[in-house]
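Researcher: Structure for this, please.
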Amino acid sequence: MARAPASPLQLLQEMLSPENDVRRVAEVKYEDWLEQDPDACAAGLLGLCCDVSAGGARLLAFTLLRRVVATRWPGVAVDIRRGAAEAMLAQAFGTTGPSSKAAVENCAALVQQGLGLDDADEDANTLILERCIAAPGHAAALRILERATQEASPRVLGERFPRASTCIEAGLASPSSAVAACRAALALTGEVESEPARQHVAKRLVPAVAAILTAAALAGGDGPASEILTS
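Model: Predicted structure, token format:
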């Protein structure tokens, strides 16, 4: 069995080395660690994701953790999977430091993976989605809802669809979160044509979204909402 690295931080720093030989050796060590002990590897990456002092290694840890979620998550211990949801929410919401966009992406990946896993992962799904819905107007919550619905379709929300819509509606009314809410609204309304009940709920979002996009267009494509016009 592969020996766990004495320092996950040092290993990832070596994976970022400009020296080709150092980087290649570190990459082999990492792949061997992941193959032989995915639990320890996932836990090590998770720890680095929560270490705001880890610099570039922290950003790499987010990327690697998302790959683990996408390719090996069913084989990782339940307690680590559950802990990942809690940790990524804390990082996304800025509970322990500045809000992390990478943590938002990992939350969306966890929601998507949880669809096909066991009850413990469904609990993690519930944790992430309910936490977001319970924070109407919060930019991080809106970004997670946007990315989760993009990654797995709006159907991932299930019976939470009306409450998610209300959360987004609150965001649209707030200047500080209007752009994030607009993106989330566009993601939410992407697949409701064949579902009259959801279509009725989603229609409530249309006037506010239209107003934000119209204002961006009239401003000549300037401002934070402008990138939505070309996306």
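Researcher: Any notable elements?
Model: The radius of gyration is 19 Å. The chain has a mean pLDDT of 86.
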